[in-house]
């Protein structure tokens, strides 16, 4: 049997091992050689900040979110809260207006255009030196905002990202139970902590991050991912983007694997398109270590999915010439069947193997479909918020 087929079959495994194991190990080795540089408040004067909350039809959650934001430990006279309603058709706008006497501002989009367009519009009314972006369904812990903003006392920092913790509910937070989503979130946060130690993260958390107003692009392409691009914009202007592990926000898990599947397709497709838009940042001659980190953390992970499609075709061909690969093909088909059952199952009490197979199939299939969207140059600026 041709060694080329064997190489193609094993290609996604090799890329994945480097992206998910090799890269973190290299980061850890570099991080050990660097000391922590935690910033202390001292005489730091809290800057005026703008908190933006883009939303679409979030009547169920926006009241509790605003109550929590208003209770966060930050000087009330040093912050502006702006809710950008993306032409919501439920009671979202009325609820937000009821907070006007507490200083909350409503910016309504007349036509629904998507999250990035809403954030672009917010740039025109933002008065803060730091713009903090958050979501309508997450919960920022009371001390998290100060900890996030404190990172900007370092003049080299252009973007600061909070630490996501996946929970069942922001009202009754718990991380109990096994969840592929929550496990991956924890892994991702640890990688960002290592990247911060080494140099800079390559993408911020869309749930909770801050950016200097001087870097905020109000003409950012509406079909792209601003949270990912924020770290790239910081690097373009010579700033670092950092992860602030102590600045915690609680992120409720998606209600179903089907919802998570759709979210993964959307976010990965937008991420690929954003990376292409900022592709010059992968030039190691100009951006050095940051280019390597961007390639390893983002592109290598995403390359696993087209490699999987190629591997699947190669495996079918190889199975005609090798009993070993025939057995591997049969095992792959069985795993895929279990994955389909897992994707269709709504029960949290389903066997762990079934749930794991469903999550694995959904993740890999979402990656392949995201690449298909990008290849077809399909762009989707209008987002459907993940209902959590």
Share of residues in strands: 5-15%
- Strand order across the biggest sheet? 3-2-1-4-7-6-8-5
Oligomer: single chain
Kindly state the percentage of residues in helix: 40-55%
Question: How many domain modules?
Answer: 2
Q: Count of helices?
A: 11
Largest sheet: 8 strands, mixed
Helix and strand run:
HEHEHEHEEHEHEHEHHHH
Which word captures the global form? Answer: globular
Task: Calculate the terminal CA-CA distance, rounded to whole Å.
Answer: 49 Å
Radius of gyration, rounded?
A: 22 Å
What structural class do the secondary elements suggest? alpha/beta
Structure description:
There is one protein chain. This protein has 388 residues and is of the alpha/beta class. It folds into two domains: 1-24 and 255-388, no CATH class; 49-253, Spore Coat Polysaccharide Biosynthesis Protein SpsA, Chain A, CATH 3.90.550.10. The chain has eleven helices and eight strands. The protein has an eight-stranded mixed sheet, sandwiched between helices. The termini are far apart.
Descriptive labels:
single chain, alpha/beta, Spore Coat Polysaccharide Biosynthesis Protein SpsA, Chain A, eight-stranded mixed beta sheet, globular
Task: Spell out the blueprint of helices and strands.
Blueprint: H1 3-32, E1 49-55, H2 62-71, E2 79-85, H3 92-97, E3 104-108, H4 115-123, E4 130-134, E5 139-140, H5 144-150, E6 157-167, H6 180-198, E7 208-212, H7 226-236, E8 240-252, H8 257-277, H9 284-319, H10 323-344, H11 352-375
Parallel strand pairs: 1-2, 1-4, 2-3, 6-8
Antiparallel strand pairs: 4-7, 5-8, 6-7
